[in-house]
Amino acid sequence: MKVTGMNSADLVGALYDNTTQNSGKKKDSNSIENLLTSNMSANNPAMANLARKAENKDFYKKALSAAEQTDELLRKLNDAKKSVFVKSADTQDEQAREDYQTEAVKDIAGLLNSYNTLISNLMEAGGGTNKNFLNELNQIMKDHGEELSVFGITGNEDGTFALDAETLAGADMDALAEVFGPDAEFSQKLTDQMDTIVQKTATTVDTLQIYSTAYSNSGSYSQYDYLKGIYDLKA
Question: Exposed end of the chain (fewer CB within 10 Å): N or C?
Fold first, then answer.
């Protein structure tokens, strides 16, 4: 039996690491057997933590999707070879420059939309890791708030951002490049943070998926033999 769309061996390993990271246990088939047969969520703090996270799995999934979209748009804007900012600087065609400016504005607006979705779902998902993500993102935005405000991008109390579309649409292309283009400090810092969020949130989503798939509501592992066999191969 196979869990469709998942690397099962990696997910079992992630589940094991999540529940035994502070135990100092040797990672072998005996310890995974103990994990699967005796570490029930009712009396194991790590498993209880997974159970709480599993209740918010949809928020984690939405946060991951939003982080991936934000990261994709950031990379498109700050690509050193293919960015609209690079293309605009390399052409003398006025119409082409207008088209590149329009594309840049569209991508920045889309970036802010996905960023706001990310913030909302990180808050809904809760947890210490997500709180740290939010703090890091808030600090980046605070550090560059003055630069962003020039383009009609201003912060809300909940950590999301409002956009004055008319101000952004009229922004100078060179000025936009200094914030969102290649080598821009803001763009690079935000991209680096998105990479971290994508990587760690993807691991959480995968772990919660295998947890939800393998761990029944009655408090027993419904796929014990399946998981044990995978772990024996992985160990």
Answer: N
CB atoms within 10 A of CB 171: 18
Strand-strand pairing, 161-163 and 153-155: antiparallel
| 172: nearest Cα among 189, 187, 150, 153 | 150
Spatial CB neighbours of 100, under 8 Å, sequence gap ≥ 6: 84, 85, 87, 88, 91, 173
Alpha carbons within 13 angstroms on the beta-carbon side of residue 61 total 8
Residue in 179, 28, 22 with CA at minimum distance from that of residue 108: 179
pLDDT in tens, 48-107: 677 778 788 999 999 999 999 999 999 999 999 999 999 999 999 999 999 999 999 999
- Token pair listed for 168: 């952004």
Q: Helix/strand/coil (H, E, C) string of the chain?
A: CCCCCCCHHHHHHHHHHHHHCCCCCCCCHHHHHHHHHHCCCCCCHHHHHHHHHHHCHHHHHHHHHHHHHHHHHHHHHCCCCCCHHHHHHCCCCHHHHHHHHHHHHHHHHHHHHHHHHHHHHHHHHCCHHHHHHHHHHHHHHHHCHHHHHCCCEEECCCCCEEECHHHHHCCCHHHHHHHHCCCCHHHHHHHHHHHHHHHHHHHHHHHHHHHHHHECCCCCECCHHHHHHHHHHHC
